[in-house]
Specification:
The complex is a heterodimer of chains A (about 650) and B (about 160). Chain A folds into 5 domains: about 90 residues, 2-Layer Sandwich (Alpha-Beta Plaits); about 130 residues, subunit c (vma5p) of the yeast v-atpase, domain 2 (Up-down Bundle), CATH 1.20.1460; about 70 residues, Alpha-Beta Plaits, CATH 3.30.70.2750; about 190 residues, no CATH class; about 80 residues. With about 650 residues, chain A is of the alpha+beta class. Chain A is built from 22 helices and 15 strands. In chain A, strands 1, 2, 3, 9, 10 and 11 form a 6-stranded antiparallel sheet that branches. In chain A, strands 6-7-5-8 form a 4-stranded antiparallel sheet, with helices on one face. In chain A, strand 9 and strand 10 form a beta hairpin. Chain B is an all-alpha fold and about 160 residues long. Chain B has a single domain, classed as Up-down Bundle (Four Helix Bundle (Hemerythrin (Met), subunit A)), CATH 1.20.120.610. Chain B has 6 helices and no strands. In chain B, helix 1 runs antiparallel to helix 4 and helix 5 packs antiparallel against helix 6. Chain B is elongated, with a radius of gyration of 18 Å. Classes of the chains: A alpha+beta (about 650), B mainly alpha (about 160). Chains A and B meet through helix 16, helix 20, helix 21 and helix 22 of A and helix 4 and helix 6 of B.
Chain lengths: ~650, ~160
């Protein structure tokens, strides 16, 4: 990365930012911190275009609303993978000319949605009213005529637990002139109406309340209860019709979804241009900006700045700068970056191991999943996906990586003789009464798990040694020869020595004896040098803890046994599925059962084990391999670019 | 029963399969946390599913050992070979490591997964680290599984 500082004329600022976006090579950094220094504060102010930012943000939020409405009611099929549509520069240039039509479309959609909501609210209210009216069907006096000058009607409910005689008594205690009628009764309530003198209304309501009675105010409705219910039902049907019409219209408008998407993307690009301005400083007629440019793009940026008559300066990053990180991986291993990104990018200037662990990852994945048919399935499905969809970014990397892993899975499946487990053996036996077996090219882990365990551990040691070698390389590069010998070479000799001591008998000769002395001398070396940076008693503690690290090596190495475990799990579960399928025996009925069990069982086995293989091979990189040398904490390089969601504008060639 | 080698071997297979209890509880614990995360952001469903599935492997290892024992003793093919008491005890011993460690580590892994889900709910970009924490627990189930395999192998 190179740091670039630019001074230019204010009037070319807009054009320069637009061209930088096309170039995708500059990450501008916020310069407002400079304003705490006197020189900058006296001469410059922060640039920015807050009112325009707000303007575009509002428009974008309205268009998102419209898109949400289409998603909700448009009944469009959503594709399996969301990809950006590729459009030509000419098409992109014509989008702003449709602004008015698109804004109308957006306004229409938002309006329709509001209509929809208010009609739904009304329907809810009608439903509630009808629920309230329903028990009063037998009350046939028009509701607006329940009062005269001297008489009025109190309607209400009394919970079933209360005695209606109590309520009646309460009324009686105030006036003798009343009529009480029970209109209805259900599981929880009695529905009562009292005809009473108007002058006593308040007193009676108060005493009735004490008796558990709740009054319902229905005098504001016109007509009888039955009429009200009927009217509400009619109104409801009409509203429902209108809602259907609105939904039809939204469905029709949904066909123009792409216009809104295009429009929103163009708006987003404009918004980003304006937002970027707040990172700049300006004087009356000039602007100042700073940013990061990847090494390989410096020339292109220089040309751009020259063309715009800017004054600029490139410099190396200083200590304390937050330099962004861009992984430099060859095209073939690019997909593996997904794994590195999953962990955390390497800190700026530290070692990027992506290319180195790529093949290990793919190999471990294959050994853990190890079924030729599963692998082939991955290769075919993902191959079609890659061909058919224009995937980008992390999604592309993941799919491509899994495609590679599929190839590896097929390879190891053939090696270990896994084809949907032992599917063909079981089919031959159950349906044709023959013995048939596809022999493994190498060996069957279920027959000889110990062999696979040893291979797993051996691969693990090689993998760990490679990680250690990287740290060694880094020491030598920095000229730290002492560290190289104490922290790297001594560990190699310790581990190799221990292996020879314990397992050297197989090689024969003097191997165990050599191993014995090699490891003893190395361990003494570890104890002596472990505390070399400390003083006094610290030397003792450091040395001891350094020797104790042998246990962490032991656990790291044993950790690779998971290759065996996951490999066996795939094969064994597949066999369980096949055995279960065959339980129903041969014939047509047996075949149907077998097919059902096969599809369901292998789908489940595939899902569980593909997840296991993916995560556990990643873990072997992250914990065991990275543990030997990796420094994380890098921030990804995010250049100024067109951050579009729906369209990708093709550069004219 | 304890003088019947075949019975002992099957008890071994049964104990191995009990690792599934741990997975069941672990996946359950993770599932509760996952539902909480999805309640606030339904788009995270796919990601929560990955974390929820992690404690499920102990059950699988248990079944694998049980299956291996049943295959080697001929139980699955119907004609179970006559085992001596000593042989039966070996098979029983083979079932214990994964049965016990799987049971307990499944629960532990479920707890770790639940916390990882909380982590993901707050910082989605840090999900990979949550997965690593969770997978750490599994190492011990894997070691037990390997021990079970080694015993099974030498019977």
């Amino acid at each position: 990365m190179q740091k670039v500082s630019v001074i230019g004329l204010d009037k070319i600022k807009g054009r320069l930012i637009a061209r930088m976006m096309d170039l995708e090579a500059v990450q501008l950094t916020d310069q407002t911190e400079k304003l705490t220094e006197d020189f900058w504060a006296e001469n410059t102010v922060q640039d920015g275009a807050q009112d325009q930012v707000t303007y575009f943000e509002n428009k974008i939020s309205r268009s998102s609303q419209a898109l949400d409405i289409i998603d909700q009611y448009g009944e469009l099929k959503s594709p399996l993978f969301k990809t950006r549509r590729i459009i030509s520069k000419e098409e992109a240039a014509s989008i702003p000319s449709q602004e008015i039509a698109t804004e109308d479309l957006i306004a229409r959609l938002i309006h329709l949605n509001e209509e929809l909501r208010s009609k739904r609210d009304e329907i809810n209210k009608l439903d509630l009213d009808n629920m309230m009216f329903e028990p009063w069907r037998d009350f046939d006096v028009p509701l607006d005529q329940t009062s005269t000058q001297t008489v009025t009607t109190i309607m209400g409910v009394l919970p079933i637990a209360y005695d209606p005689a109590g309520a009646e008594g309460a009324v009686k205690s105030i006036t003798e002139r009343y009529v009480m009628k029970q209109v209805n009764e259900d599981k929880t309530m009695r529905y009562l109406a009292f005809l009473i003198p108007k002058e006593n209304e308040e007193d009676i309501l108060a005493t009735l309340k004490d008796q558990g009675f709740q009054a319902l105010e229905m005098r504001s409705y016109k007509g009888t209860v039955t009429e009200n219910i009927l009217n509400n039902q009619k109104r409801r049907i009409k509203l429902q019709d209108e809602i259907d019409q609105i939904r039809d219209e939204i469905k029709e408008l949904a066909a123009q979804k792409e216009h809104i998407e295009d429009y929103q993307d163009i708006l987003t690009v404009e918004l980003d241009k304006k937002k970027t301005r707040s990172k700049l400083l300006k004087t009356k007629k000039t602007f100042y900006m700073e940013g990061w440019v990847p090494e390989g793009r410096v020339e292109a940026v220089k040309n751009l700045l020259d063309a715009n008559e800017c004054y600029y300066e490139f410099s190396e990053p200083q200590e304390g700068d937050d330099v962004p990180v861009m992984l430099k991986t060859s095209k073939f291993f690019k997909p593996v970056e997904a794994i590195t990104e999953m962990y955390s990018l390497p800190a700026y200037g530290t070692f990027d191991p992506t290319t180195i662990f790529a093949l290990w990852y793919i190999c471990f994945f294959g050994m853990m999943f190890s079924d030729a048919c599963y692998g082939l399935l991955m290769v075919i499905v993902l191959g079609v996906v890659l061909k058919k969809y224009n995937l980008e970014g992390t999604m592309y990397k993941m799919v491509k990586l899994l495609f590679y892993c599929g190839i590896s899975t097929t390879f190891w499946g053939v090696m270990f003789g896994g084809y949907f487990g032992n599917l063909f053996t079981v089919i031959a036996e159950t349906f044709f009464g023959k013995t048939f077996k596809i022999p493994p090219l190498w060996f069957d882990p279920l027959d000889d798990p110990l062999k696979l365990l040893i291979i797993s551990i051996a691969l693990g040691v090689a993998h760990l040694f490679l990680g250690l070698a990287i740290q060694g390389y880094l020491y030598l590069k920095d000229g730290k020869v002492v560290d190289f010998i104490c922290d790297i070479v001594l560990w190699y000799t310790t581990i190799i020595g221990l292996f020879l001591w314990i397992g050297g008998g197989v090689i024969g000769g003097a191997a165990p004896v050599i191993g014995k002395w090699m490891s003893i001398i190395s361990i003494v070396g570890l104890a002596l040098t472990g505390g070399r940076d400390r003083k006094g008693a610290g030397k003792l503690v450091g040395g001891f803890s350094n020797v104790y690290n042998i246990t962490s090596w032991l656990s790291d190495i044993l950790s690779y046994a998971r290759i065996l475990a996951l490999g066996l799990a795939t094969g064994a579960i597949a066999q369980v599925v096949n055995t279960m399928g065959a339980l129903a025996g041969g014939g047509i009925k047996g075949a149907v059962v077998f097919l059902l069990v096969f599809v369901f069982g292998h789908l489940l086995n595939f899902a569980i084990n593909v997840l296991g293989a993916f995560i556990h091979s990643a873990r072997l990189q992250f914990v065991e391999f990275f543990g030997k040398f990796y420094e994380d904490g890098g921030e990804a390089f995010e250049p100024l670019r067109k951050n579009t969601k729906y369209i990708k504008i093709e550069e004219s060639k | 029963m304890l003088t019947d080698g075949n019975g002992l071997a099957l008890i071994g297979a049964a104990i191995a399969a009990c690792a599934g209890c741990g997975s069941g509880m672990g996946v359950g614990i993770a599932g509760q946390a996952a539902a909480g995360v999805v309640a606030s952001d339904p788009k995270k469903f796919g990601r929560t599913l990955i974390l929820q599935a992690l404690p499920g492997t102990q059950g699988i290892y248990g079944v694998v050992i049980a299956f291996l024992i049943m295959v080697k003793t001929g139980f699955l093919s119907g004609g179970m070979i006559d085992l001596s008491v000593a042989e039966g005890l070996y098979y029983l011993a083979a079932g214990i490591p994964i049965g016990v460690v799987g049971f307990l580590s499944g629960i532990g892994q479920g707890r770790a997964a639940a916390s990882a889900l909380q982590l993901m709910a707050k910082r989605q970009d840090q999900m990979a680290k949550g997965i690593i924490y969770t997978v750490m627990v599994e190492t011990y189930a894997i070691l037990a599984f390997v021990v079970s395999i080694l015993i099974w192998l030498r019977v």
